[in-house]
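Posting for a labmate who doesn't have an account.
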Amino acid sequence: MPKIIDLLVVLENRRRHLRSEIFELQNKMVFFKRLCEAHEMSRPPIYEKSLSPAERKRRQYQKDRRAIIDAIGNEDTAPDKALLALMKDVAKSEHAANSAQRAWREFGKRHGWLD
């Protein structure tokens, strides 16, 4: 008799364990379903087709040039890449030299070697 009771206890424990696993799987399914629905509601892609490497390179060049132009006069908020580009253009004109000097000062402040 004790063996049958032990067997019933083991079966009941296994049933409880399986029910908890099923519950967890159902929760995961609901989560992934909501995730997929949210993804479907996101905005459509900007372009019909993928960009070629040349187009990607041209867009990145344009973005970098815009950042450099925006950095003139706003050296304190400009990214480091734009500051370095401003410093490179020091010999073009007097305005470029002034901008390069401000970029040098801001770059030095950011990296701790100028006060």
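Reply:
Got it, the structure tokens are right above this. Residues 53-111 form one domain.
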